[in-house]
Automatic annotation (TrEMBL):
One of its GO terms (molecular function) is alpha-L-fucosidase activity. Belongs to the glycosyl hydrolase 29 family. This is alpha-L-fucosidase. It comes from Flavobacterium oncorhynchi. It is an enzyme of class 3 (hydrolase).
Amino acid sequence: MKKITLCLLFFSMSLTAIMAQNYTPTEGNLKNRKEFQDDKFGMFIHFGPYSVLGNGEWIMNNQNIKVTEYGRLINVFNPQDFDAKKWVSIAKSAGMKYITFTTRHHDGFSNFDTKLSDWKITNTHFKRDLLKELADECHKEGIKLFCYYSLLDWTRSDYQYETGKTGKGTGRTQKSDWESYIRFMKGQLTELLTNYGEIGGIWFDGHWDQLDNDTDKTLQSKVNWHYDDIYKLIHSLQPNCLISNNHHLTPIQGEDFQAFEKDLPGGNSTGFGGQSVSQLPLETCETMNNSWGFNINDRKYKSTKDLIHYLINAASLNANFLLNVGPMADGTIQPEFVETLKEIGVWMGKNGNTIYGTRGNVMKPQDWGVFTAKDKTWFAHIIKTPNQTDYIFIPEMKQKIKKCYLMDSKKELKFKQQPEGTFVYLNGVKFDAIDTIIEMQIQ
């Protein structure tokens, strides 16, 4: 009974610590939230020593590689062909407005010149501060930079690995020191927000390591993450910096946008979803094949069409799309990804006005497609051939249409509005292979 009481007390204290923060975002933060929603499309980059092994970013955990053995990668990880200009150019040409980069993933390796760890990029043969070069190029090209930062660590002994779900086979025996680990994270976050110019946001990951399972949608955790202090620290250093946490939960106080992993908001095909959708800006992330980090055997590339459809569907639900690349160990992005991103960029160059700056949830998704909207202009995206190819039906549409036409040709389309919904007639319309877009001017 005493043990149960202590557990309940600890949970109550943890919950209180998380919820105690009375967070009021600055005007600049609110402005950045709106710009984030307008940007709609970003590049996720997973890169680190694991790229050398070519088997994804979880290889240390999945193959139970010991810290001492994994640490040898510092002598072979040398992204000599890394060029920040090329990375940023690829993102920009694809129509992406921001980059989220793994400054530190679960293997604990820092892709920046931290003073708090020797396990870092500047101690490799590469020697350079990769993050600094990327940050400088992003700032030069008007691309916002977000920093992915792992909460869990498979190499540090002060991380409370004893209660974590992952990293059990990495050979740590020293007793953890949680308060030391929290100080370490605060120190590194201070470095990131002090030494690399304006940071668009901090993207946390790993909270779930201290939960029993991903179906637990409560705030209960085996550790106190000190989010109250950490979020206050971030907003004190850069008040306009956005915070998100891939904890697979409904956002808590101090967070500025809600992240979804490999699922659209409201979906749960992976087991990571199921949390309620908040009123904050939303973002969903997905891979171009089935891997986040470089995986030499993963040839399950998603098609350009499927990725554009994912972007459209995300926008229709008021969410951004963060599309991942895992560069190869030499620092270059593999050609299959580059080619697909070029093709997406061509489509965005032609149709980006139906994505950028739009808002979603104006109408429920239909069998044939979805809607995005910008003020009094609605865009119906026909991404599946309708059952009746001579019209589409929009049930329960109450808004009055002034004008309706095909976006690419500006051909005007006839429509009929009735109490049960709206018919838009498609006689003679040739459907696009990816997306037939109808523009509607609303009264």
